[in-house]
Amino acid sequence: MPNDSIYGKYEAFLPLVLEELSNKIRQADAIYRIRSGDPLFEHINARIKSEESAREKCRRKGWPETPRSVLYEMKDAVGIRLVCSFLEDIFETVKAIRGFSGVEVIEEKDYIKKVKPNGYRSYHMILDIETPFEDVLGNVPGHYFAEIQLRTIAMDSWAALEHQLSYKKNISNPELIGAELKRCADELAACDVSMQTIRELIRNS
Amino acid sequence: MKLLLAEDEKDLSRALAAVLNHSGYDVTAVYDGEAAVEAAKINAYDVMVFDIMMPKMTGLEAVRAIRQNSDMTPVLFLTAKSEVDDRIVGLDAGADDYLTKPFAMGELLARVRSLTRRSTVYGSKELRFGAVLLDVEHLEMKSANSIRLANKEAHMMEYLMLNPNKYIGTDELFNHIWSDEPETDKGIVFVYVSFLNNKLRSIDADIKISADDSGNYILNQF
């Protein structure tokens, strides 16, 4: 049976890769809860990049619309977002992910330290996951890429608002809204740091 | 309030110190310009009173050196003679006001009060130390990125940035920043130092506030 998905015959494996990675993360959270009494994150969102978004990304990057492009050049066909209550939880979770077996961290981008000019804050990791399945290069066991984004609840709601702005055309005063959104990002960051500090003060008192 | 007095005539110095102490100032007396510059490097003062003619370094040279260290503490000059030149050179060197000897103690106290009143809004809208820029008016602190400050955080940061590399006591910080809320617990100083340090870290700053064992704080680069 021909498969006209941009992911080709590998489409069926993607949910399994996503499930496997989600399980590793949930397990790390369970272990952390036992050790510290607190969860690593507040919630987890897992998704396979939609056909439409994958094709759009290929066109934007000038890649041919092939399985190789979306499974080898593109690294976020498999994506997980972890939303944490406190800043420190992000870095605890990053530490846990670095220790996963069968998973190699091939890139980390700290947009919490190196904030994007528009105010975007988040921590991104690109992972190379070894799986029992064939990959797009024909290897068995095969390797699949995944992206994990980690952020606080405040950063997450800010990103949702920024997303709305970036997709809305014909805004009457985009510079003004952009500047206010940036100011808002800095205020939310201040709240995140203050809550983290109070948490430390409570813990150390 | 801390006052640095540099006057080489011992009798006059003693008399001034007595009157200023009586009026509630915490007076440090030195007797030459060099000692004044050294004292200003180590301690944070609210106001300085300098004689012009002093051994080792004149009051004019001392105030120039102090200003060169980005110290903007108000300085009042005491000039022996009422020569216009002296006053012009003194004000141009960075002094804020002058008083011609002989003067009435009441006028000296009034001028010191006027200078310290002004120091709380001493033209420091933007301050820089290390790679950190503090915009007091907009409550913003910037380095690799930017973050917002609460009102009292901004005031504490402003005071520390006006007095970098100097140990400042908990009481001193408290008296400057919480003067409008004297009933507040002094433990608040440590809490705000913690807030500021974490905010400095979040903007990837090259400066931080350190503490010694007796609750004195110092802002320095690392």
Topology of this structure?
The complex is a heterodimer of chains A (205) and B (222).
Chain A: H1 14-36, E1 43-48, H2 51-61, H3 67-73, E2 78-84, H4 87-98, E3 103-110, E4 123-131, E5 142-152, H5 153-167, H6 174-204
Parallel strand pairs in A: 2-5
Antiparallel strand pairs in A: 1-2, 3-4, 4-5
Helix pairs in contact in A: 5-6
Chain B: E1 2-6, H1 10-22, E2 26-30, H2 33-42, E3 47-51, H3 59-68, E4 75-79, H4 84-93, E5 97-100, H5 105-119, E6 126-129, E7 132-135, E8 140-142, E9 146-148, H6 151-162, E10 168-169, H7 170-177, H8 188-202, E11 207-211, E12 216-221
Parallel strand pairs in B: 1-2, 1-3, 3-4, 4-5
Antiparallel strand pairs in B: 6-7, 7-8, 8-9, 10-12, 11-12
Helix pairs in contact in B: 2-3, 6-8
Could you explain how this protein is built, in words?
The complex is a heterodimer of chains A (205) and B (222). By secondary structure, chain A is an alpha+beta fold. Chain A folds into 2 domains: 8-153, Beta Polymerase, domain 2, CATH 3.30.460.10; 159-204. Chain A is built from 6 helices and 5 strands; from the N terminus they run αβααβαβββαα. Chain B has 2 domains: 2-119, Rossmann fold (3-Layer(aba) Sandwich), CATH 3.40.50; 126-221, Winged helix-like DNA-binding domain superfamily/Winged helix DNA-binding domain (Arc Repressor Mutant, subunit A, Orthogonal Bundle), CATH 1.10.10.10. Chain B contains 8 helices and 12 strands. Chain B has a 5-stranded parallel β-sheet with strand order 2-1-3-4-5, sandwiched between helices. A 4-stranded antiparallel β-sheet of chain B has the order 6-7-8-9, with helices on one face. The interface between A and B is medium-sized, with 17 and 15 residues.
